[in-house]
Amino acid sequence: MDPVTRLFGAITDRVIEQPRRVVIACLVVTALFAPGMALLEASAGSDQFTDGIEEADALDRVNEQFEPAFGGDDPTTQLIQRDVNVLDRRGLLDMLATAERLSDRDSQRVTEFSAAAMDVAAELDEDADTPAAARDAIERASEGEIEDAVAAAAEDPGFATLLSDDFNSESGTASAALGVVSHSFPASADTQALQGEAQVIAEQAPGDVTAFGGGIVSDETERVIFDSLGIVVPAALVVILGLLAYAYRDPFDFVLGGVALLMTVVWTFGFTGYAGIAFSEVLIAVPVLLLAIGIDFGIHTVNRYREDRAAGASPETAMRGALGQLVVAYSIITGTTIIGFLANLTSSLPPLREFGLVAGLGICFTLVIFVGFLPAAKLILDRWRAERDLPEFGSQPLGAEDSVLGRLLPRLSAVSRPAPAVFLVVVLLITAGAAGYGAGVDTTFEDDDFLPPSEQPAYVDYFPGPLQPGEYTATETIDFLSDNFATSEDDTVTIYVERRMTSDSALRSLARAERDPPDTFVTVDGRASVDSVQSPIDAYAAEDPEFEQLVENSALDGGRPNRNLDRIYAELRNSGYDDFTGEYLADDSRSTRVVYAVESDASDAAIAADARRVADRYRGDAIATGQIVVFQAVADTIFDSAIVSLAAALGLSAVFLVILFWLLLGSPTLGLVTLVPVTVAVATLTATMRLAGIPFNAITATILAITIGLGVDYTVHVAHRFHDEYSAGGDVDAAVVTTLRGTGGALTGTWATTALGTGVLVLAITPILGQFGLLTAASITLAYLASLIVLPPALVVWVAAVERRPGLLFVGRLLAAADAIDVDVDDGTTVDRPRTDGGADAAVAFDDGADEATRTDGGVDAFEWQTDPRSSADDPSQKR
């Protein structure tokens, strides 16, 4: 006996002979892992995907070295005001009243407040440097004085940056305003709690003023995950438990299967909590996988056990037979599935690597629980029931011969039976076309993927109180800011240049790069619309004649200055343009930021490509960055990761399956055959994604790994069962029929439970989770259909190729001929069968041991032994 067989035998013996010890050991491990679940932390938003992205690192350096449009190093909260006119007396007082309430709250630790209302108050009273003092100045002023103060404040170019795009300097009107509150907390402070409190204070203040900031966005992004799970999990449980109840048809087995599934989740996420891996949107896929694989293992174990029990075997003998066969299949499935998930370790995105690690480990835990705990607990449970003479509720396996499934599933091979080789060629041609079409599926990465919806789906109104999600304002606020203020990065890209900006050629090199802009860039008079360090130079020169003379004298032959640049920068920093200059020039003048406006209707891919080409024009070390470029880089990485992990998973799975089938079954080529339907499922899924307009994104990027994992699971079950049946009976058709009935019945229960159970993710509040649920259900369905429709003819072709039996490739023709004749079996009884072609009835007489039949109608002797598909699958010896 080889070492692998001895190992599996030892495992089976331990489970069957010492079930109590196995159950107790598993329960102890569960108790040890359970506290780890309390350590789980949520991680949400797009920032988790940008680690290690070169463009994102450049953006971080930009944010560190240059002053933001408003706010400094301290945490800041934005106050967003909406009104008919935020610059009239009432509008100014509403903004200042909210800021004053925040300043009076000790927990807010407000150090500074910037707003258009503060600038107007400063024109009325130069000592009005607090919201309270500014409010007093506005209240004392007349309407005319306020209008004059607004006009004076509007002369400062920074005044308009805190007002909406509809600001009219002549009439002194604007429909929205921003205020920036700085807090004296460290950058690592809990901004969620800080801004949450500010939000409550703003709601209680007069006027329409809203507090907003990154902490609020993070809070809502995390809450929407758990609110979605709060809706999806109960719905999934109802569906899964209902279908499991039908699959098991026994309350004891039903509870036992549910406990095993719960243990799998506890082990996996207990480990995740202990390991300090945050629960992100991507890890939502892991419990889906564990449920799918666990349900599959549980149904197959119980179903196979019931098959042997129905044949009269004792519980120990039945479980030994079930485990003796299924442990091999489970080991192959687990090893190959782990390879598929660990292929995600090739990704440069941390969340995808964490997904691969957690999913791979979770599958290992699933194997231990469903090979150890479930069979051992099942034996203990059945002994306990036998001692108390408790009734059996549903002991027949799914796919029993006299059941609806038992009659329906074998018919799935009818399409391929006439010519399995031709059927396979057609399937592979369709698969190649689907793969080519699916290669054009889009890849996206956007903040909107992680944000709660601006409007909740209508169906949530019908949920009971505990399932009602919270209110979300972040998306609506972000959309408002994007539509009404020029502070958004949505329509800009940044070129970060590291070079000595005091060199004589620095500003002129910037000018050369701005010429001949690409099509996706906004142009003004044939040049790119750009903001750079030249912008504050031009603005200050327009105000100060002496500075204008300095600039002109520093340009020897006209154009931009090419000397005295250090003096020009010093003058800017000493003027009122210090903050404006700091947005584009680093304090040490060794790096600069250039911001280009881009066309809003251009694709992110085209904008990013053009931005990289423009960056190549600059002297020095220049890189394109900004939100558009960073997100496109992440999208490209997601697609590359999906393709690389797919190739790695398929390649390594092929090698692994060949080795395992060789070691365990002595049939290495059978391992390659099992990947045929998996390839079909993957190609068809990508084509479905493109047809449905569902892109690869942060979550759906895992769907290919899931399809491989579940596809291998299903196909290995079918291939392994077929191998056992064919080895025992030597008859291809009988092996196919038995496999489709027995294993196909269990797979049908698995498919229905997991596909419908995970499909309820479409009820999730966030669309990205709904897409994931839809694709998961589709991938499970495709894997199921491929394993029962594509794999059987592939197995027939495999037998024909290995054993050189070309007649099998056209077995359907022989079976059709059999229907047209009468068969005289060994006992001499002649069975008349009417011909379906209208010809004369015929009879065939078989002698004992004869290899050929003699036609009595004068026709040519035609065919070899074949199994009658109408014969019992349990009696493959019946010959025709």
How do you describe this structure in short?
This protein has 880 residues and is α+β, with helices and mostly antiparallel strands.
Q: Can you tell me about this structure?
A:
- The protein has 28 helices and 14 strands.
- The protein has a 4-stranded antiparallel beta sheet, with helices on both faces. A 4-stranded antiparallel beta sheet has the order 8-9-5-10, with helices on both faces. It has a 4-stranded mixed beta sheet with strand order 12-11-13-14, with no helix packed on it.
- The chain is α+β, with helices and mostly antiparallel strands.
Strand fraction: 5-15%
State the share of residues found in helices, binned by percent: 55-70%
Number of strands: 14
> How much is the average pLDDT?
80
SSE blueprint:
Layout: H1 3-17, H2 19-37, H3 54-65, E1 76-82, H4 89-104, E2 110-115, H5 116-124, H6 131-140, H7 143-153, E3 176-183, H8 191-204, E4 209-212, H9 214-248, H10 251-275, H11 285-310, H12 315-342, H13 350-387, H14 404-408, H15 420-438, H16 474-484, E5 492-498, H17 506-514, E6 523-524, E7 527-528, E8 530-531, H18 534-543, H19 545-553, H20 565-574, H21 578-582, E9 591-597, H22 604-615, E10 621-625, H23 627-665, H24 668-692, H25 703-729, H26 732-759, H27 767-803, H28 811-819, E11 823-824, E12 830-831, E13 844-845, E14 854-855
Parallel strand pairs: 11-13
Antiparallel strand pairs: 1-3, 1-4, 2-3, 5-9, 5-10, 6-7, 8-9, 11-12, 13-14
Helix pairs in contact: 1-12, 1-13, 2-10, 2-13, 3-23, 4-6, 5-6, 5-7, 8-9, 9-10, 9-26, 10-11, 10-13, 11-12, 11-13, 11-26, 12-13, 12-23, 12-25, 15-24, 15-27, 18-19, 22-23, 23-24, 23-25, 24-25, 24-27, 25-26, 25-27, 26-27
